[in-house]
Amino acid sequence: MPIVRIELFPGRSHDLKMEIATAITQMLEEKTGVHPNGTTVIFSEIAPSDWVVAGKPYAVPPKGRDEPSP
User: Fold this and answer.
1) C-alpha to C-alpha distance for 63 and 32, rounded to whole angstroms
2) What's the whole-model pTM score?
3) How far apart are CA 34 and CA 3, in angstroms?
4) Averaged over 52-68, what is the pLDDT?
5) What's the rounded Cα separation, in Å, for the pair 60 and 62?
6) Alpha carbon of 31 to those of 4, 21, 24, 28, 49: distances in Å?
């Protein structure tokens, strides 16, 4: 039972994510013989400010977010 996890920035439509999930499911069936009912695709949307590359955030969080409270 394959579990495919896809992490990406927010903004893709539900329809596009369903197209991707269908294509991945079909490819796994064709290449490995796994029945489609055995494949799970999970999308996780991560804000660019929470995505860190080489120790630096991909984007700076909006002002006022993640600041410590007084």
Assistant:
1) 48
2) 0.78
3) 12
4) 76
5) 6
6) 15, 15, 10, 5, 36
